[in-house]
Amino acid sequence: MAQTTFDLADVKRRMQSSLQSFKGDLASLRSGRASANMLDPIQVEAYGARTPLSQLATVSVPEARLLSVQVWDRSMTAAVEKAIRESDLGLNPQTEGQVLRIRIPELNEQRRKEMVKVAHKYAEDAKIAVRHVRRDGIDLIKKLEKDGHLTKDDMVRQSDQVQKATDQHIAEIDQALAAKEKEILHV
């Protein structure tokens, strides 16, 4: 059945979920200290599918510059090690049975700049996601106006509300990016 109303709250919720996903991606970027979130974006080729590392192992932080990854299934240890090694995080795990120990090296100037570039890529992806939500909302508003469910004035007003929500979420993405960039570049 065709939609006959426009829900601004749904558009804002979808934009907010893009923002939260971006913040999760930022949390996974390292800034000199070990964090269990660093390994969140890693996908492991396991059981014939790409599986998040968090579904195959427990990640802990025993020291400030050390991560410990306890793999639950011994047969997956090599696959987890390979996925960590091939990630763009620049980590080199050491295997001890089912436990992988990952030393977090000091970030040099070049590596910090690479991390900032990755953060900018995450920000651009988040902005694109927010703009896609805006486009979907505006398309729905135009369709409702064309079908006679909205007046021209309502269409303009609701389009403005969608644009304001978009601007707000983009500004939040920029703020989070600036804070993370400062954190990464801080020596």
TrEMBL record:
Chain ranges of the Ribosome recycling factor domain: 22-185
Keywords tagged on the record: Cytoplasm, Protein biosynthesis
Localization (cell): Cytoplasm
Gene Ontology molecular function: ribosomal large subunit binding
A GO CC term assigned to this protein in UniProt: cytosol
A Pfam family it matches: RRF
Keyword Protein biosynthesis found: yes
UniProt-listed SUPFAM superfamilies: Ribosome recycling factor, RRF
GO biological process, alphabetically ordered: cytoplasmic translational termination
Family: Belongs to the RRF family.
Protein's job: Responsible for the release of ribosomes from messenger RNA at the termination of protein biosynthesis. May increase the efficiency of translation by recycling ribosomes from one round of translation to another.
PANTHER family noted in UniProt: MITOCHONDRIAL RIBOSOME RECYCLING FACTOR PSEUDO 1, RIBOSOME RECYCLING FACTOR
UniProt-recorded name of the protein: Ribosome-recycling factor
Organism: Bosea vaviloviae
